[in-house]
Specification:
alpha+beta, 5-stranded antiparallel β-sheet, transmembrane
């Protein structure tokens, strides 16, 4: 049985049934989905009770729950116990409990209201300063299907959904150990959103877990509507462009993170799982790297690293070379670039800025538009605008190629939020290349390296897998992917802490 002591006398469930009913009706006035049902029982039906629930949050019949309660009281209502008193009811339920539907007994009126809002049915009995709460079947949610944000080629095809308990069940079905712990808390005065974080006891770093719990305790009564709301409480540097947590909709990815000592966070009403801490090298890996053969997985890893470099540096390198260092460009290629830029009225920086703006605008339009027309608009828009810009002498063909290749490279990265970080960093690097050339690029690269070196997530260095430098570790599970049997024999070390 679950008991919760009230914080003040005003929160106590009243012994008078009419008082409890008036308080319920006052709180839920103008709520058409509130259902109250009066009941009479005992000798001569002289005892009263009422049940209350929100029909939009439940899918069961309240009659079965009330009958179960009356069935438990029936031995006391027969024969010598026909003169039932409120004290008898209290002693019986607190001593024996209710035999069906796994109920809980509440002595706080505020807690009873919260349980109603969570989809439970609460029964108040005349003369008893407690209430009985049953968990009723909830509303139907989206069925488990394939991930929407993470396409699957190899591996499980099931995805998390908006129902928190279903998601936890999916995780437990893949990781069957009592060391998998889930802790729950609620946040939000109005939303009262249930938040769960999980970890693998004995694998997670105790200092990381303690720091995570400290950060979660600072949330208080903030209205948390999505898992991403919690990111700013977890990250150390709120204004860093680099993501410090990962997101997934795949239970196998979340379980793999738990086995590596990560902490996962789930929020009721959202399908995404937040994985923290998120380290730099982890944004280049996917679960499918371990489902495919070593040679192919290693090739894809290398391709992603090249895509990262292209997405970050290609426009700024083109601006620096074409403006300040044309001698570094092969003569034939330089003549071709000069020929295409002959009648362009803008310098390379302005030209790149205009085309990057067009590309970002098309990308956002393709995301926000309805799916059937979003992809068509982005593809057709890119072709039409690119061709029109070349014919109007606003941009050169080589610049269109540079911008398009940069955008495609950002899409090749597994984590979307890492691609967003590169979109942010690309523009300062372009400005440095336009003002100081190669020297400006070196300053930009040095500042980025300095920032990620100092960055920490839950006390763990962001570059912990790269520093201290271990060539064997880089070859084993970053630049390349060693065979699975070798990875299992030499598991990944815990994050380095100073």
């Amino acid at each position: 049985m679950k008991h919760r002591k009230p914080r003040s006398a005003s929160e106590l469930v009243s012994r008078e049934l009419t008082v409890n009913r008036e308080r319920i009706e006052e709180l839920f006035c103008h709520c058409h989905d509130l259902k109250l049902q009066s009941w009479n029982f005992g000798s001569g039906l002289r005892h009263s009770a009422f049940s209350v629930y929100l029909e939009t949050l439940t899918e069961g019949s309240q009659e079965s729950y009330m009958k179960a309660t009356l069935r438990d009281l029936s031995p006391m209502l027969a024969g010598a116990d026909a003169n039932l008193t409120p004290e008898d009811v209290r002693l019986y339920f607190e001593g024996q409990g209710v035999t069906t539907h796994t109920p809980s007994i509440l002595d706080s009126f505020e807690h009873a209201v919260k349980q109603i809002l969570r989809g439970c049915i609460v029964i108040f009995i005349e003369g008893w300063d407690h209430a009985i709460c049953y968990s009723m079947p909830g509303i139907q949610t989206r069925a488990v299907s394939e991930p929407i944000m993470e396409s699957v080629v190899f591996g499980p095809h099931n995805s998390t959904i908006e129902d928190l308990h279903t998601n936890i069940g999916l995780l437990r079905s893949l990781l069957r150990t009592p060391r998998l712990k889930f802790e729950t808390f609620y946040s939000g005065v109005e939303s009262d959103r249930e938040i769960v974080y999980g970890y693998l006891d004995g694998t997670v770093d105790p200092q990381t877990l303690a720091e995570f719990k400290t950060k979660m305790s600072r949330i208080g009564d903030q209205e948390i509507l999505d898992t991403s709301y919690l990111e700013e409480w977890v990250e150390e540097s709120r204004y860093s462009p680099f993501p410090q947590v990962r997101y997934t909709e795949r239970p196998d990815v979340a379980n793999a993170a738990l086995l590596e000592g990560k902490i996962i966070v789930l929020v009721q009403g959202t399908p995404s799982i937040m994985i923290c801490p998120g380290l730099f090298v982890e944004f280049f890996t996917t679960s499918e790297d371990y489902y495919q053969r070593t040679i192919y997985a290693s090739l894809i890893r290398t391709l992603r690293i090249v895509a990262f470099v292209i997405a970050l540096t290609l426009p700024s390198l083109y601006i620096a070379f074409s403006t300040f260092h044309p001698e570094l460009i092969p003569t034939v290629l330089l003549l071709a670039i000069l020929d295409t830029r002959e009648k362009i009225p803008f310098p390379a920086f302005i030209e790149a800025l205009i085309m990057e703006f067009f590309f970002e605008l098309l990308r956002e339009a393709g995301i926000r538009l309805p799916r059937p027309i979003g992809s068509a608009v982005s593809i057709v828009g890119a072709l039409v605008i690119g061709q029109a810009a070349i014919q109007a002498k606003i941009s050169s063909p080589i610049m269109v190629i540079v911008v398009a290749l940069t955008g495609i490279a950002s899409f090749a990265l597994p984590q979307y939020n890492l691609g967003v970080a590169l979109r942010i960093l690309r523009f300062p690097l372009m400005l440095l290349a336009a003002t100081l050339g190669g020297f400006g690029l070196m300053i930009g690269y040095f500042l980025i390296l300095l920032h990620v070196t100092k960055l920490r997530v839950l006390g763990v260095p962001y570059l912990s897998s790269l520093s201290p430098f271990e060539p064997g570790q880089l070859i084993r599970d970053f630049l390349l992917r060693a065979p699975i049997r070798l990875l299992m024999r030499s598991p990944r070390k815990r994050p380095f802490r100073e």
